[in-house]
Amino acid sequence: MGGKKKLSLKQIERMQDKKDEEEKKKKEKSGSPRERKPLSIIPPDLKSEKIIGELKRMRVLTPYAVASRFNIRISAAKDFLEQLEESGTIKLVSGSHNIKIYKAE
Question: Which residues, including other chains, have CB under 8 Å from residue 99's CB and lie 6 or more apart?
Fold first, then answer.
């Protein structure tokens, strides 16, 4: 007939104080939650030298990388990369029906 012994009131009080301190520290560390900005549907300008320069600095161009860099949706990034390929700014390296990988020329 073993089992866990019943804790004394002092032990219960210590455990509750410890738990409260840990929660307080956790809240202080987390701070305020990050605000999410709405993603843009409109891709950046194709003829902008600043945009082209930024793309050339990237080693590999994937829809996810472009979407996160320019804060646009992935579908808009896919269309943007296809337009750049048609204009000859970038070249398709590899791809399947799921993902396409491009490289700046």
Answer: 62, 63
Note down the domain range covering 56: 49-104
Cβ contact 40:76 at 8 Å: yes
pLDDT in tens, 4-47: 889 999 999 999 999 999 998 888 776 666 677 777 788 888 88
| Dihedral sign for Cα atoms in the order 74, 68, 42, 38 | positive
Residue 13: DSSP 8-state: H
Q: With b meaning 16 or more CB within 10 Å and e meaning fewer, what string describes 25-50?
A: eeeeeeeeeeeeeeeeeebbeeeeee
Q: What is the DSSP letter of 101?
A: E
Q: Identify whether 82 is part of a domain.
A: yes
